[in-house]
Amino acid sequence: MTPASLKTVPASFLPGPVPDRTTWEGWNRWRLTRRDFVPAPAVTAEEHARMTPRQQRLHDLHRIATHSNLAIQETPMSAYVSRRMRSLVEVNAFCRGPETRPGLMVNGGGCQGKTETVCEALACFEDEWLALYAQDPAAVAGTLDLHAPVAYVRTPVKATPISTCQRILDFYGEPYKGMRQEDLIRTVKNAVYDHGTKALAIDDITRLKMHREADQDVLDLIRELMSLPVTLILIGVGIPKSGLLRDGRKGGIVGLLKKLIQEGCRHAIETGREQITSGLLDDLAISPEDLPGLDPEAGEVPDIPAAPATSSRKPRKGRNTVFDDRGVPAGTAG
Fold it and tell me: Of the residues 194, 235, 242, 330, which has the maximum number of CB atoms within 10 A of its CB?
């Protein structure tokens, strides 16, 4: 095949620029085009043999492009993670109160599809959110703020609060040259509000090593971001062993009741039951981990009893003791 003939290759499977999802432009381009690729059609060996050499080559190139762009296959685990994430993000997004939004950590081994599962779920959320709000509803009159319902960043290697803030601001394209740490944190907070961000995904979070003082400062920064009206989603390999959960905060009774009602409403909608019943609530598992911000050392974490174990055995009927001889009461004459 000559170079000139390559110009006639259909553009539907030609590789384009690889989107950088750590910027708004790259994320938006990926979100809008992530399902545009059309796989090569399946043909029989006889049909392939009847093609001209050029048609055969073009078809083989299309097949190579198909193998290079395999679609993400849904598994029971990825479906569960996506459902829980969408539920949490949507509940938090519609919440108008100033209380802390619970976040989510997505843990797993390398090459298990954590990042793609999170990004696909957040892209679906953003598609629906933008259908409701084509523009940031909090935009200042007379201006057109860049609407970014989802922000995706990666944890810097040997992160510091300054470099972490810079990564977040890079996503929005916000200038930060010469800013001090306090100014950077304030600018990040303003950016989340100004751009209407509802979910902030921070990938490679286990790059933070808790033996480094700077990494502990970054974790404090992340806790500071939890005060914003945004759902934080942390993605990493080996999170339980990383030390990130060592200083975790747990939740209280009223907050858990609110969370239980929220989850129950969501579950009733998804299952079509349309009513919150005790049986429906029995299907849900709520724990203090669902509400951050409480100090266990200060006695803020309540003692919540574990769910009673269920048994399939029918309880035994008690014995009738009406005619039992209980003896002579103490202090009476014989």
Answer: 235
